[in-house]
Amino acid sequence: MISRRSFGKAVGVGAGAAAVGVGGPASASAAATVPAATPAPGAHPTFARIKQIRAGVLDVGYAEVGPAHGPVVICLHGWPYDIHSYAEVAPLLAGQGYRVIVPYLRGHGTTRFLSDRTFRNAQQSAIAMDVIALMDALKIDKAVLAGFDWGSRTAGIIAALRPERCTALVSVSGYLVTNLEANLKPLAPKAELAWWYQYYFSTERGRLALEDKTLRHDLTRLVWDTVSPTWDFDDATFERTAAAFDNPDYAAVVVHNYRWRLSLADGERRYDRLEKRLAARPTIGVPTLTLDAGRDPFTAPGDGASYRDRFTGPYEHRTLPGIGHNVPQEAPAAFAQAVVDADHLRG
User: Fold this and answer.
1) In angstroms, how far apart are the furthest CA atoms of the chain?
2) Of the four, 90, 192, 203, 279, which is 20 to 30 A from 73 by CA?
3) Quick count: other Cβ atoms within 10 Å of Cβ 229?
4) How far is C-alpha 6 from the chain's CA centre?
5) How far apart are CA 246 and CA 250, in angstroms?
6) Cα dist. 266→97, 306, 338 in Å?
7) Interatomic CA distance for residues 203 and 264, integer angstroms
8) Given a cut of 50, is residue 246 above it in pLDDT?
9) What value, to the nearest 5°, has the Cα angle with vertex 7 and ends 131 and 333?
10) How far apart are CA 250 and CA 237, in angstroms?
11) Which residues of 143-172 are buried (b: 16+ CB within 10 A; e: fewer)?
12) Would you say residue 24 has pLDDT above 50?
């Protein structure tokens, strides 16, 4: 049992009244849904230190919490978010003996390209290989991979293509591997509406807006407001993350990601072999726990049924009522519990 007081000490915030339970590496029991923990009023937990390491084509900025020799969990953020989506999750897991690594994805925060000549590519396989390169640089053989949004897609790709590097998987929204051919087909109009920024970034107006500091700020704040309709975050919480968007490669990386998904921008030939494998929608055999957010406009109906056949190993699914898109930050205790329980699906 982790008290809110001890959690507050771990992240440098005041104690609250709520208590959350997260079973650690020695415990295999779990509730179906762990209630979301409520931060103390005015608290803005953060990471005490950001480390840097050269990995592949990047100098990666990352937070690390927990014992150096504990089982590793790598938490991957999405867009428009950053490592602070896990500012409450990480100490919960660290307190149970996990070594938690939370990297800034390419184009975010303190992560930088090593060369000005490197193409600012954000196709799905490139981002996944960034994580493999980070694991190699940190001498991590295997880890539990957990993510949402871009992070879910990245973790799922590694689990599918490099299962020997993935102990277990926690994936918000289930199976998000991009199929470029399928993405050419229109969705229902209501579903298309939720993706407005994807189409905006396909235009020159959208690219210019993302490069403009004020417009970028307001655009990303609008996304936060609309995809997390029940999350009562304050301005300081958003501003803490928005600082990560000042990365000089942010606009180029984000625009390329969304244009590539719509086949409006090319990737790099060195990833063609990986993309060919991903186009076949490979199944994932590692132990997996999928999460759906009940108030996320991108959550498909059917309680995970649309992607269940993509997971062939030990598996569990949970839906979190009343939670929006940024699951780890809106429901940190439930997300941390999912990581622990996915780890125990191995038996």
Assistant:
1) 54
2) 279
3) 12
4) 25
5) 7
6) 42, 28, 36
7) 10
8) yes
9) 60
10) 20
11) bbbbbbbbbbbbbbbbbbbbbebbbbbbbb
12) no
Do β-strands 288-293 and 166-172 pair in parallel, antiparallel, or remain unpaired?
parallel
Sequence-distant (≥ 6) Cβ neighbours of residue 97 within 8 angstroms: 24, 25, 66, 67, 70, 71
Q: Which residue has the tokens 């993350």?
A: 241
- Distance between CA atoms of 100 and 147, rounded to whole angstroms? 13
Q: With contact defined as beta carbons under 8 Å apart, do 104 and 62 qualify?
A: yes
Check whether 210 has a pLDDT greater than 90. Answer: yes
- Predicted pLDDT of residue 43: 75
pLDDT, tens digit (0-9, with 9 covering 90-100), for 45-104: 899 999 999 999 999 999 999 999 999 999 999 999 999 999 999 999 999 999 999 999
What residues are paired with 51 via a beta bridge? 62
Burial class (CB in 10 A: 0-12, 13-18, 19+), 217: middle
Residue 112 amino acid letter: R
Q: How far apart are CA 255 and CA 148, in angstroms?
A: 19
How many of the other CB atoms lie within 10 Å of CB of 69?
8
Burial of 194 (0-12, 13-18, 19+ CB in 10 A): middle
**103, 55 Cβ separation under 8 angstroms:** no
What confidence tier does 7 reach under pLDDT thresholds 50, 70, 90? very low
Decide if 92 contacts 22 (C-beta within 8 A).
Answer: yes
Evaluate whether 7 touches 95 at the Cβ level (below 8 Å).
Answer: yes
Confidence band (pLDDT; 50, 70, 90) for 19? Answer: very low
193 alpha-carbon distance from chain centroid: 22
Dist CA 137 CA 161 (whole Å): 19
Q: In the predicted model, what is the mean pLDDT of the chain?
A: 90
Q: Cα 255–136–48 angle (5° rounding)?
A: 70
The answer to whether the CB of 242 falls within 8 A of the CB of 337 is no
pLDDT at 268 over 60: yes
Structure-token pair, residue 200: 């905006």
**Count of C-beta atoms within a 10 Å radius of residue 310:** 20
Q: What is the mean pLDDT of residues 292-309?
A: 95
